[in-house]
UniProtKB/TrEMBL annotation, chains A, B:
One of its GO terms (molecular function) is DNA binding. InterPro entries: HTH_LacI, LacI/GalR-like_sensor, Lambda_DNA-bd_dom_sf, Peripla_BP_I. This is LacI family DNA-binding transcriptional regulator. Residues 3-57 form the HTH lacI-type domain. It comes from Luedemannella helvata.
Length: 363, 363
DNA sequence: ATTGGTGCTGCAAAGGTTTGCAGGAGAAGT
DNA sequence: ACTTCTCCTGCAAACCTTTGCAGCACCAAT
């Protein structure tokens, strides 16, 4: 029922190859013929069959994007950015959700492998060796994790954690807790590593709590634990947990930031709307989405391969395995305040930034 | 490089059709042969090429899902439900985001048409005739809109709006404002229709404000307008706007629910965490996602078509155009309270429900 | 011995598109 | 008049899989 290239050819009195070229290599066909073909194609409602095209070119013009949890507000900006960047290059994005389940990740990659030209693997929880194995089935770009030999884009959460700890130490906090993220998270390990180092350098104690589910409930559930460790400041794995913690502390009757300071990571839009507004480390998620798409599609000029069967289902053969690190930025709002060891003098007073403009403060 | 059915056939000494059947019709091949084929396939790392399969069967085993805005927390539960329902039937979901842009919708449907077996069109903003036109390119199920002749699943927001208005009227409110949704939204029109009727029946005045963008900012921006119309209660198009309104009113120094009562629609998870907790109309979004997938795939037993070229790219030829309406439920929390016309006596006192359990109150 | 089944496998066409190669027409250069 | 070149178009193979049909071997029943 749907019109094919053959119908268009018949109706406009040319060979099918001419029709094909009209769409995929317009400069090779006589302008006159071309417009005639285009007209009949239009009138027949012809649309190229991507499956057939994929079969012979080996390019589907789709890319997969696998995230842990669509409902986590961290991801939508990244997804949107990736989508729009892909759309500019005439690619489509196939979003899938693993529900924070490590085993679902491999399944999903494998299932997608043959119907996409590459996969963006976001915050994977599976092992490095498994990721590497997946990368043999389909070109992969990893986001939020560094895997040697694979192209990846990460945020510099290490720097972010350092900034956060220094900010807290500068405010006079000496007992700090770190609310760890989910098991298997590279980001979580990275934060932990950097935070421990920064705390030692600043002469503060850092107690690591976790692993925890990276959700509001996870943060709320940790409130009691936070109270028991007797800290005066907390750095959370992400904003969602920080916000949950804010609520948990509130229902325990603990005031923020007067009694306990809280810092999140990510700067999701919600963190501007909590009360108190959340001090957090902004991560450039949209930029990450764009960068990942660019890396995946870097060698794709949509130039026709010499022979159709070269590089099947692969955008690029010998890919450069670049690793991009994006800068983070500490945004100081109202959830952090002076701690018990704040030296006298105005030097160390935090100037709370208001509005969406990021402000960076070093002690 | 990747192994094909032919490689497996050669390596295991059978014809390619036997390999094919091993995967797509196992009961037709000798168990002994089958296991041998499976073994060699495994060792070669063979994975069926979905593009080739799609080409001949006309089934891609993909479905598209088009939403207005992934970042809107209304959608993720729907997306997740659709995904998991689809996965059970061995389908994949292709999520795309229109950024609330009506013209992007058609583009997206058309672009998807050939690479999916059907599309779930969620809260479309385009015209009915355009939708109908799209449905000629690819099987469509419309969510959150009633289009005659097309299968659709909607929430009974009319009943929800009625319940909300009756709730407010029962609390003694006589001046009510309706914060309308975006232009082109069927849901918005439906709410408006039902709310006007219910308000008249209850002897209350209803002022309609809008259209507004269905976001927190949209709600916040309307706060001033709400104040000027002099109402004592507001029903918002969705929770996001209601929450924005809560903030807007707060920064105007107007207390909720003491001075103005606010009701949302959707019951997104965030609405349980605002202060005051939001009274809202719960819409069964997950059920809607599941139902839509079921409708799209209803006649798909994955039974092989007699001839491969039957029903190309279409799950079903003569589809029953069922229209499903899902029930909504008023959830009373803390953002609604007594209005100026509350009669004496305990009869009309609202008993605020707490926790996630929905409670339904008729005046 | 013939017939009729049953259970399995091979054959080959088909699906829609791309693309290297060859060929034709006309123009231009010698 | 011959070659050479440029532009365009047609030819046909190839991509990988599914599936109706036919054929084979074997067994049971007549």
């Amino acid at each position: 029922m749907p019109a094919t290239i053959r119908d268009v050819a018949r109706a406009s009195g040319v060979h099918i190859s001419t029709v094909s070229r009209t769409f995929s290599a317009p400069h090779l066909v006589n302008p006159e013929t071309r417009s005639r073909v285009l007209a009949t194609a239009e009138s027949l409602g012809y649309r190229p069959n991507r499956a057939a095209r994929a079969l012979i070119t080996g390019r589907t013009h789709n890319v997969g994007l696998i995230v842990a949890d669509i409902a986590n507000p961290f991801f939508p900006p990244l997804i949107k950015a990736a989508e729009s960047q892909a759309r500019q290059r005439d690619y489509h994005v196939f979003v899938a959700d693993t529900n924070e389940d490590a085993t679902a990740e491999e399944e999903l990659v494998l299932a997608m492998a043959k119907q996409v030209d590459g996969v963006l693997l976001c915050s994977p929880r599976m092992s490095n060796s498994l990721i590497e194995q997946c990368s043999r089935e389909v070109p992969l770009v990893v986001i939020n994790r560094l895997v040697t030999g694979l192209p990846s884009v990460v945020m510099d959460v290490g720097q972010g954690a350092r900034d956060a700890i220094e900010h807290l130490a500068g405010l006079g906090h000496r007992q700090i807790a770190l609310l760890g993220g989910p098991r298997g998270s590279w980001t979580s390990r990275e934060i932990r590593r950097a935070a421990l180092l920064a705390a030692r350098a600043a002469g503060a104690d850092l107690t690591v709590l976790g692993p925890n589910p990276p959700t509001e409930d996870g943060g709320a559930a940790a409130a009691d634990q936070v109270r028991r460790v007797g800290c005066t400041a907390v750095l959370a794995y992400n904003d969602l947990m920080a916000i949950g913690l804010l609520e948990g502390l509130d229902s325990l009757g603990i005031r923020v930031p007067e009694e306990i300071s809280v810092v999140g990571i990510d700067d999701i839009s919600l963190s501007r709307r909590t009360r108190p507004k959340l001090t957090t480390v902004a991560t450039p998620t949209a930029a990450a989405g764009r960068a990942a798409i660019d890396m995946l599609l870097q060698h794709d000029n949509t130039a026709p391969s010499r022979t159709g069967r070269a590089a099947p289902t692969a955008v690029d053969g010998r890919r450069t395995t670049a690793q991009v690190t994006l800068q983070t930025e500490l945004v100081i709002r109202d959830s952090t305040g002076p701690g018990p060891h704040l030296p006298a003098g105005p030097t160390y007073a935090a100037t709370a930034a208001s509005g969406p403009v990021a402000s960076y403060v070093k002690e």
